[in-house]
Amino acid sequence: MTFKNTKIAWGWPSKLLHWLGAIIILLLLTHGWWMTHMAPRGERLAHYAGHSALGYDLMALVVLRLLWRWLNPVPELPADLRPWERLIAQVAHAALYLLVLVVCVTGWVVATTARSPMTKEVFGINVPALATTLDRSVRQSVEEIHMVFAYLLAALVVVHVIGALRHHIFKRNDVLRRMTWGMRS
């Protein structure tokens, strides 16, 4: 197992950051939906605080992942991909990063402009407020943007998973294998 990425393989830090991010994104998406649709009203504030704390950690993880990605080569896509497949892969990955960052930043604004600002991440570290007060209608708009982009992120995650499975099952290449541990070629 390599530390740094190569032209043909992801290093273990890239894999670890990918899968930690994937788990946190799935937790945040499901928890976000649950807390806004199912959680009893009296318990929502605690859920919002936990949700924002994990969101701050996701944002830090994504920034770390982007830095790692910029400092390491990105494995090449399979040679047999058509130009449109390459384009879709590149656009989808860029959109995933962009959507995660937009959802994190809008969530950060919503969390720090709440009646009781939520400024602690999971490990108890204080996060500075992006904004401390917003007009109620502006805050509601930011909250709606956060929700809409979270749903778009969820849809793109599904497309990403389908794409990885397509590469693995139908195209029979190493795209999925090289982002996992222990899958044989």
Written account of the structure:
With 185 residues, the chain is mainly α. The protein has one domain (12-179): Fumarate Reductase Cytochrome B subunit. Helix content is 64%, strand content 0%. The chain has helices spanning 12-37, 44-71, 83-112, 136-170. Helix 2 packs across helix 3 (83-112) and helix 3 (83-112) runs antiparallel to helix 4 (136-170). The longest helix is centred in the C-terminal third of the chain and has 35 residues, at 136-170.
Task: Please name the defining characteristics of this protein.
mainly alpha, 4 helices, Fumarate Reductase Cytochrome B subunit, 0% strand, 185 residues
Summarize the structure.
It contains four helices and no strands.
Structural class: mainly alpha
* H/E series: HHHH
**Could you name the ranges where pLDDT drops below 50 across 5 or more consecutive residues?**
none
Radius of gyration: 18 Å
Counting copies of identical and different chains, the oligomeric state is single chain
Tell me the span between the first and last alpha carbons.
14 Å
User: Quick one: how many beta strands?
Assistant: 0
Quote the CATH topology. Answer: Fumarate Reductase Cytochrome B subunit
* CATH architecture label name: Up-down Bundle
Counted by DSSP, the helix tally is 4
Average pLDDT across residues? 93
Rough shape?
elongated
CATH class: Mainly Alpha
Topology, please?
Elements lengths: L11 H26 L6 H28 L11 H30 L23 H35 L15
